[in-house]
Every structure is written in structure tokens, then in C-alpha cells.
Specification:
The structure holds two protein chains of two kinds. By secondary structure, chain A is α/β, with parallel strands linked by helices. Chain A contains five helices and five strands. In chain A, 52% of the residues are buried. Chain B has one domain: Orthogonal Bundle (Helix Hairpins), CATH 1.10.287. Helices cover 83% and strands 1% of the residues of chain B. Classes of the chains: A alpha/beta, B mainly alpha. At the A-B interface, helix 1, helix 4, strand 5 and helix 5 of A face helix 2, helix 4, helix 5 and strand 1 of B.
């Protein structure tokens, strides 16, 4: 059974591109348009194997979402990979401290993203 | 983009009437604010436009990959079905050929058995002919002893002798034909066996070829290789399609730069000429990861 990856990004195009790259590699994809929606989906779906998350989003940004997700014990092992145009070390530090597993600055390399997703989900 | 045309349509600040500095300052600030709004609106328009086009390109790309995947899958199914059909046909051909050869072998054996039976019958007929001949000789002797009274017996004796001769001649002809059949059948059997062996080895070669093709198809090397290549190309295309976010971010940062510029203009208009002291609100520097680089913690 295909592992499910949640893609959280307020940009339709980025969601489409990330989803397409991961779908072609055999992953099942679910999408959220901001941190709040992403948080709700993680709570509702225990089958999510990994999260790819943007930083700058309306309502709840990606860093706040990671902090909220990781506050819950059941999400400690859920890998969250940040995918953003931001590259500021302070933000990267905050994401790392919150429990994110990695950081990619857009534009991403689809092949590398797939390899990383496979690595993080043990595929 | 604060274009030259935008500035050109507005009166220069130093052309404002003297004594109206505050009004002129307000006008400049208002125009700057208006310009910023226009830029923000254009950025939004650009974002919508590029977003629509990128989504469309993504859909096309996705369809291409899906179609290639379906094509590869369909081809694979067709090849598998063809191989299965080919294997079925080969198997049926082998079975029918073996049945034909067996039937031929049985027929040859039956003909030989029949020949044996016919030869036995010829022996029996020859025995009868011999007995008839001896009977005819004895009848002739008896007819001679009876004289004129034995004339009728003599006629019968002659006919019996003639009949014995005819029977023997016919039996010899049949025996000769049977001999020819016996001589002719072994080469037929040898040829049949030889043909059987050649057919068997031909079938083995065909079966091996079918199996080899089947294995190659199982590995799906050609089809899946093409699909991987298409996915790789699609990934490259995806990388090229990701210009929107960085573009919007840069345009947005231009707007932020305009904010800074606006602040500086405001300070100049307010009489503050110490621009060097103006704060730089940009984030502190540091080593930032390169675009696309995967940084795992």
C-alpha cells in the first residue's frame, strides 16, 4: 500500500508540483492550503507517513504548524520536511528546534525530493 | 515595477509652488503609496496569471506521464497476452505433432502386423494349393487306372491342377507385394522419427525463445526504462516550472525595498539628511542553503 504524504502549501502550483513528483514515485498524496488545515488533517489521518510543509502561509505558518504538531506525543516520529523560499538561518534553526527533519529552499529538485521522501518514509 | 512612465505622468516635486512644501510632500508620499499599491496589484495579477499557466502546464505534464505509464502498461499486457497465446499455440502444436507421429507409428505397426497375418494366410493358401496339387495328381493316377470310366475324374484332376497353379502364382504375387511393403515401411518409420526429433528440437528452440522474451518482458526493462526516462524529464520540467514562488517572493521583496525607500523619502522630506543612520531592517546575514539543496537535520 502506498505511503501517504501530506503537502502543506498555500500555493496551488507548488502543491501540484510536489504532489506530481511524489505521486509519480508511488506515494499517495493529501493536500492542505495552510498550517491550520494541515494540522487538522494530521489529527484526522493517522496514516500520514510524512509532511512536506511551506513556511509562509496564511492563518498558520509552517513553523507554527510544526511546533503545534510536535507538541503532541503521537506525532514525535512524524517526519516534517520544510520546503520554502526562505533560507534564513534563524528560521531554519527554529524549524529544527521545533522538530522538523529537514529544509529545502525552492525551487526544489524533484528527483532529490523523491529520494529524500523515500529515505524519510523507509520506502 | 515603478516604471518611468508612472513618474513621467506626475509633476516633479521641485516644480511644486514655493510655500506648498507640506502639500508637495503629501502628494509625493501619496503617489509613492499609490505606486506601491499598483505594484502590489500587478504582482497579484502576475501571480494569478503565472499560477494559471503553471497549473495548466503541470496538468499537461501529468497527463503525458500518465499516458506513457498507461501505454507501457498496455504494451506490457499485450506482450504478456501475446506470449501466453504463443506459448499456448506452441504447446498445442507440440501435442498435435506428437499425436500425429504416434498415429503414424501405430499405423506402420498395424500394417506390419497385417503383413504378418497376410503371410500366414499365404502360407496356408500355399499349403492348400499343394494339397490340391497332390489331390489332382492322385486323381489323375486314379483316372488312368479306371480307363474310359475315369475320364470325368481326369478332367476334374486337370482343373484342380490348374487351379492349384493359379493359387500358387497369386500367393507368390501377394507375398512379393507384402515383401515390398515390409521393405518400404522402415524408411517411412525412420523418417517419421527423424522428423519428430527435428520438430522437437525446433519446438525447444521456439519455446526457449518465447521463455527468454517472456523473462525480458517480466523485467519490463524496455518499457519501465522509458517510463523512468519520461518521469525524469517530467521532474526536470517541474524544476523549470517552479519559477512562480521565487518570482513572487522577489517582487514582494521589491515592494519591501519600496517600503524602505518610502521611509527614506519621508525622512528626507522631513528634513532628516542622515540617511546613513537609517536602520536596515533586513534580517541578519548568515549562510543560507542553496535553492534545491536538501538540508537534513
Amino acid at each position: 500500500m502506498a505511503k501517504t504524504i501530506l503537502v502543506v502549501d498555500d500555493s496551488d502550483t507548488v502543491r501540484q508540483q510536489v504532489s506530481m513528483a511524489l505521486k509519480q514515485a508511488g506515494f499517495a498524496i493529501t493536500e492542505a492550503a495552510d498550517g491550520q488545515e494541515g494540522l487538522a488533517m494530521i489529527d484526522a489521518n493517522r496514516n500520514i507517513a510524512m509532511v512536506v510543509c511551506d513556511v509562509n502561509m496564511p492563518r498558520m505558518n509552517g513553523l507554527e504548524m510544526v511546533e503545534s504538531v510536535k507538541r503532541k506525543a503521537e506525532n514525535k516520529s512524524l517526519p516534517i520536511l520544510m520546503l520554502t523560499t526562505e533560507g534564513q538561518p534563524s528560521m531554519i534553526k527554529r524549524a529544527k528546534e521545533a522538530g522538523a527533519v529537514g529544509w529545502i529552499v525552492k525551487p526544489f529538485n524533484a528527483t532529490q525530493l523523491v529520494q529524500t521522501a523515500k529515505h524519510l518514509t523507509n520506502v | 515595477m515603478l516604471g518611468a512612465s508612472w513618474f513621467a505622468t506626475r509633476p516633479a516635486v521641485d516644480t511644486a509652488p514655493a510655500g506648498c512644501a507640506d502639500g508637495a510632500h503629501s502628494q509625493v508620499m501619496a503617489e509613492i503609496a499609490e505606486g506601491k499599491e499598483r505594484i502590489a496589484a500587478r504582482v497579484e495579477d502576475l501571480k494569478v496569471l503565472t499560477g494559471r499557466e503553471i497549473l495548466a502546464c503541470g496538468d499537461v505534464l501529468s497527463s503525458i506521464v500518465d499516458n506513457v505509464r498507461a501505454l507501457v502498461s498496455e504494451t506490457d499486457r499485450t506482450v504478456q497476452a501475446s506470449l501466453a497465446r504463443s506459448e499456448g499455440l506452441t504447446s498445442r502444436f507440440v501435442t498435435e505433432m506428437q499425436e500425429d507421429l504416434l498415429a503414424q507409428e501405430t499405423a506402420v505397426t498395424q500394417v506390419l502386423l497385417l503383413a504378418d497375418g497376410i503371410e500366414d494366410a499365404i502360407d496356408a493358401i500355399n499349403g492348400l494349393a499343394q494339397s490340391s496339387h497332390m489331390l489332382a495328381i492322385n486323381a489323375s493316377i486314379e483316372a488312368a487306372r479306371l480307363g474310359s470310366h475315369g475320364r470325368g475324374v481326369a478332367v476334374i484332376a486337370d482343373q484342380m491342377r490348374e487351379m492349384s497353379k493359379t493359387v500358387r502364382t497369386t500367393a507368390d504375387t501377394v507375398r512379393s507385394s507384402i515383401g515390398a511393403v515390409r521393405q518400404g515401411l522402415p524408411p517411412v518409420r525412420e523418417r517419421a522419427t527423424s522428423m519428430h526429433e527435428r520438430t522437437r528440437s525446433f519446438i525447444d528452440v521456439v519455446a526457449e525463445q518465447v521463455k527468454s522474451t517472456s523473462l525480458q518482458t517480466d523485467a519490463g526493462s524496455a518499457g519501465s526504462g522509458r517510463l523512468d526516462a519520461v518521469i525524469e524529464l517530467s521532474n526536470v520540467a517541474l524544476s523549470h516550472l517552479q519559477f512562480q514562488d521565487p518570482l513572487v517572493q522577489k517582487l514582494t521583496s521589491m515592494n519591501r525595498d519600496l517600503d524602505v525607500l518610502e521611509g527614506r523619502v519621508r525622512r528626507v522630506l522631513d528634513g532628516d539628511v542622515d540617511l546613513a543612520a537609517a536602520e536596515d531592517d533586513r534580517s541578519p546575514g548568515g549562510v543560507e542553503p542553496a535553492p534545491g539543496e536538501v538540508m537534513l537535520f
